[in-house]
Amino acid sequence: MVEVIRTEAATVAFDGTVVLDRLDWTVQEEERWVILGPNGAGKTSLLNMLSTNSHPTRGNVSVLGNELGLVDVFDLRPLIGVVSPRTTSLIPSTEPVRDVVMTSAWAITGRWRESYEDDDLNRADELMRVMGVGHLADRAFSTLSDGEKKRALIARALMPNPELLLLDEPATGLDLGAREALVQRLSVLAGDRSAPVQVMITHHVEEIPAGFTHAMLLRDGQVVAAGQIDATLTDENLTKTFDIPLSVSKVFSRYWAFAV
Ligand SMILES: Nc1ncnc2c1ncn2[C@@H]1O[C@H](COP(=O)(O)OP(=O)(O)OP(=O)(O)O)[C@@H](O)[C@H]1O
Ligand SMILES: [Mg+2]
Question: Residue with the nearest Cα to atom 8 of ligand 1?
Answer without folding.
Answer: 45
